[in-house]
């Protein structure tokens, strides 16, 4: 009984907070910029959740995910600008295109072992970056970049950060529910099995190649859609945003927050965003501090933030009931399994 | 014209080769990938500029100083970060990210210490240009090719014909057996990271006079170095060098005769092609497919 | 049920399996024994699709399977366990078994991500069936625990039921008794009998001679990649070549 209550209370409070956030930030703290940050939080959360599907669950490393971010952003902007497709649809089509590209990349890449997959994804990221910065006929605007408009839903323009926030929130909720559904299904089990032991997975009837392709494709969709959200939020894109640094940042956000969970990517995004905002004033030192912090986190906290939270929570629970220790341990494991 | 292009290609190719050599050495000895090589090159170039260009220490002494300093940085990183992570048994992604983090520190640190403008090396040789077949080439460029090849020969001799080199190869092949033979595997691993770092710094001091020194000098070279290593067969020392020279020449040729816009893409496209089609590289190094 | 003809598997210069022709019969336990390095696990790898044979054929229930991939072979009804335990350590015990059923479940990707009614139902049934399999070996109390937290013997048992979960026709057991004490080996002996009762044929690699002689109906002996001898346990036990291979020269 207590556990069920705990389980529903958390999400209910979370939902209320999420819905009321823009008003809390603007009216409560007089912080309009905070709403814009919240929009960024949502789209990065989607992007990193996508990477989590590929890396956290299927165990395939990608240091080139900025490429999908770019395909989503540039794809949507170009479809809107050159083919006059309404933004709402151009975003989805661009993400679908990224899915196809992801699958195409995964087909040969699925044979590669760890380190070499990382090289392949880096190379892929660089190829896309080169393409958007030096496109034939300058269709991507090259280094000048491209301007675009925000989303328009049946004539209703999302011309404020608050309005965009709710749009992004809806997208995030839908995509996160899908992620959760996927994890708790036979598809999710297949991915985790591949991560844990791909030989045994294959022996148990999992078509490893097919599922690696699925993982790449789905992951690409998420990050690409996030890219499109980015493009129409900022309404200006240029190659600089989609360089190798961005891929590293996605992976950093994922590892900071913790892999293979719903909450992990979100806490990672939050932490890194907070860090970036703090360092905004010390821009010349930004990379240095970032590097030092990243290094420290890696050496000290490999489980990421949610790993630390899980450990602390487990320790508290374990101390609370010494007699029922065995039962509690099972509950802790249940939480593991539920994530 | 063709000769000019070839020489240009060999100049940058020899640098790619040196970086790739470092990658293969580290991969052979630790089974890991280090993403710091490029920025170690930058550090080497900056330090060299400081010693030779600013403090007017003779070039070859500057070179030795730089190599020693960066050698120690490499050793320190292996002992202070890498072996700790390996001992902890963390997932390889964390060690990769750790090297990336260090590369950020090196890059930004260089910028803060040395400034973000491009530095030029003063002339090294009394003769500014060498003439080959009627064409003039910057002497420093020829030095680049010559010194790289010399280093590769020295390195090959060191690895195959000295006891330290042999211990390093043994530690890489089978750490437990090596330990049983009394080899200090920890020292050998540290040395391989240190030597890779030293090679990168050496490369920096060679390319600095030719290209000028700036913060992102090594970053792109570092990434293309991976291509060279894969082309030659990752982990294969000779392959690294051949791969590097090949990449340098192909890149320069294509850029001169077809289009310079996609010059950088060539390296990555080749990397992908090799990974997907011939992952063992030109020299058929142990298979890297699953 | 399964026949190999002139099966040969070479790795570069090394011939791991050399011209092996054998038959596994329905409803029996067939043993594969031999000194270390004889090529037994390699043989399992060859017939389960991990390594394509260099030459020769493998026929299972009339279908040629030597060029098929492991998951396709699993679909046809062959499953296996591994010499080194290959569980999915960070998944729960019951989920490990559910992966074993992967190919028998029918929900596709889109049904899964939208959690349609049929998917929910199938998942529930699958979980119940997996739980039944756990009961088969007495692991049902540990259903939600992480597979990595089980004891060694329990892990071996889990690997076996994970293999059985797909209702195979043939299960290949690779040294299932390794590291077990005598009580656990007794339980394994009984378990194999119960597996046979369920209509699953077994092929067994084992080093424990007492267990092998006790439980198998027919034995093949490998040495240096070649078939050295074959026969009933009694015949093999008294075969001088077999005795020499185990005692001499090793």
Q: What's the structural blueprint in terms of helices and strands?
A:
The complex is a heterotrimer of chains A (339), B (290) and C (250).
Chain A (H helix, E strand, L loop, with lengths): L1 H27 L3 H26 L8 H18 L3 H23 L4 H20 L12 E2 L4 E2 L2 E2 L3 H23 L2 H18 L4 H27 L1 E2 L6 H14 L5 H17 L6 H15 L3 H17 L4 H14 L1
Antiparallel strand pairs in A: 1-4, 2-3
Helix pairs in contact in A: 1-2, 2-6, 2-8, 2-9, 2-10, 3-4, 3-5, 3-8, 4-8, 7-8, 9-10, 9-12, 10-12, 12-13
Chain B lengths: L1 H29 L6 H18 L4 H30 L3 H23 L14 E4 L2 E4 H23 L1 H11 L1 H6 L4 H27 L5 H16 L4 H21 L5 H15 L13
Antiparallel strand pairs in B: 1-2
Helix pairs in contact in B: 1-5, 1-8, 1-9, 1-10, 2-3, 2-4, 2-8, 2-9, 3-4, 3-8, 5-6, 5-8, 6-8, 9-10, 9-11, 10-11
Chain C lengths: L1 E10 L2 E11 L4 E5 L6 H8 L7 E6 L2 E2 L5 H7 L1 E3 L12 H8 L8 H5 L3 H20 L15 H13 L5 E5 L7 H16 L3 E5 L3 H7 L2 E6 L2 E6 L1 H5 L2 H8 L3
Parallel strand pairs in C: 3-8, 3-9, 6-7, 7-8
Antiparallel strand pairs in C: 1-2, 1-4, 4-5, 9-10
What does this protein look like?
The complex is a heterotrimer of chains A (339), B (290) and C (250). By secondary structure, chain A is mainly α. Chain A has helices at 2-28, 32-57, 66-83, 87-109, 114-133, 161-183, 186-203, 208-234, 244-257, 263-279, 286-300, 304-320, 325-338, and strands spanning 146-147, 152-153, 156-157, 236-237. In chain A, the strands form two sheets. In chain A, strands 1-4 form a two-stranded antiparallel ribbon. In chain A, strands 2-3 form a two-stranded antiparallel ribbon. Mean pLDDT of chain A is 86; it is low at 327-339. With 290 residues, chain B is an all-alpha fold. In chain B, strands 1-2 form a two-stranded antiparallel sheet. Chain C has ten helices and ten strands. In chain C, the strands form two sheets. In chain C, strands 6-7-8-3-9-10 form a six-stranded mixed sheet, sandwiched between helices. A four-stranded antiparallel sheet of chain C has the order 2-1-4-5, with helices on one face. In chain C, helix 3 crosses helix 5 and helix 3 packs parallel to helix 6. The relative contact order of chain C is 0.18. Chains in contact: A-B, A-C. The A-B interface holds A 55, 61, 63, 108-116, 118-120, 122-124, 126-127, 130-131, 134, 198, 244, 248, 251-252, 255, 284-288, 290-292, 294-295, 298-299, 302 and B 27, 32-33, 81, 84-85, 88, 90-94, 96-98, 100-105, 107-109, 111-112, 223, 226-227, 230, 234, 261-262, 264-265, 268-269, 271-272, 275-276, 279, 288-290.
